[in-house]
């Protein structure tokens, strides 16, 4: 099953790639608000499994918003791929990798224009993103997928000067400029994949591949992350989890490379879709 946020309304995406309005199809049983579906995720899944979808309407990707546009929490994981830890000059974390947040004001949909900070060093980090679909606190790893509504594509865009400035790093601040957390285009349920723990992901700049990887290479998988995080704090329906990025970021290159005026960044996770960001000064 695929859902999306189309012009601020919750829609189901048909097998033909058209959109069906959930509020209209359910005759008001479910709200048009995309965020409101997550606290009722089990009920929604049961209804959607038997709903007879109409033909749906075509739409433009530019009208899509973030699948979970107003989460209580955005949690992000650093150094969760061995090759990315190496290119960043860090040892592989022993235990839980670094955890930070991207502030909710940075969250956007899949197709956007992003302003580059002045005199910055803005980097790219494609990631698989999980959205929580049931309250999770002290969840066992073997049960963790039961608490996931679905998966989407994310970019953890990072302003490295801000992130690494000062006596201690400012990870959350450097990763939270406006537009620095695009997600989408759809939320796809785990049962839609042959193996939700092994998905190809990557990104390109102006058609040049810069990152490629597979989520099977994550040091801590989605279920392990949910188990480890929920051992410390409750995860709420609609919360967003950025799971980490593979090697190929600008920081780790020699010479280092940063996003520039006019660049187009295209990011994907196979089976979900792509993000498209255009950068400008």
From TrEMBL:
Domain Fumarylacetoacetase-like C-terminal: 74-279
Gene3D superfamilies attached to this UniProt entry: Fumarylacetoacetase-like, C-terminal domain
GO BP field: small molecule metabolic process
Pfam families cross-referenced by the UniProt entry: FAA_hydrolase
InterPro entries (UniProt xref): FAH (IPR051121), Fumarylacetoacetase-like_C (IPR011234), Fumarylacetoacetase_C_sf (IPR036663)
Molecular functions per Gene Ontology: catalytic activity; metal ion binding
UniProt keyword Metal-binding, yes or no: yes
Highest taxon in the source lineage: Bacteria
Keywords (A to Z) from UniProt: Metal-binding
Keyword Metal-binding in record: yes
Family according to the record: Belongs to the FAH family.
Name of the protein: 2-keto-4-pentenoate hydratase/2-oxohepta-3-ene-1,7-dioic acid hydratase (Catechol pathway)
Organism: Actinoplanes derwentensis
């Amino acid at each position: 099953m695929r859902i999306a946020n189309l012009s601020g309304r919750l829609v189901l995406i048909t097998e033909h790639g058209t959109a069906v309005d959930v509020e209209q199809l359910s005759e008001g049983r479910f709200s048009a608000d995309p965020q409101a579906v997550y606290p009722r995720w089990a009920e929604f899944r049961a209804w959607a499994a038997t709903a007879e979808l109409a033909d749906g309407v075509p739409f433009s990707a530019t009208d899509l918003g973030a699948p979970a546009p107003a989460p209580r929490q955005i949690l992000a994981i650093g150094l969760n791929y061995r090759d990315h830890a190496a290119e960043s000059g860090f040892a592989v974390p022993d235990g839980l990798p670094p955890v930070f947040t991207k502030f909710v004001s940075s969250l956007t949909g899949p197709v956007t224009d992003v302003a580059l900070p002045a005199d910055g060093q803005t980097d790219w980090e494609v990631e698989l993103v999980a959205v929580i679909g049931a309250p999770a606190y002290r969840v066992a790893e073997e049960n963790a997928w039961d608490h996931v509504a679905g998966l989407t594509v994310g970019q953890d865009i990072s302003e490295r000067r801000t992130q690494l400035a000062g006596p201690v790093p400012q990870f959350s601040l450097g990763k939270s400029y406006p537009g620095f957390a695009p997600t989408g285009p759809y939320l796809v349920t785990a049962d839609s994949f042959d193996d939700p723990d092994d998905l190809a992901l990557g990104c390109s700049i102006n058609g040049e591949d810069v990152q490629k990887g597979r989520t099977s290479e994550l040091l801590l998988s989605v279920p392990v992350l949910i188990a480890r995080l929920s051992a410390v704090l409750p995860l709420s329906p609609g919360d967003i989890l950025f799971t980490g990025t593979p090697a190929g970021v600008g920081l780790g290159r020699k010479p280092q490379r940063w996003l520039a005026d006019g660049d187009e960044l295209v990011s994907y996770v196979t089976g979900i879709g792509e993000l498209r960001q255009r950068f400008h000064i």
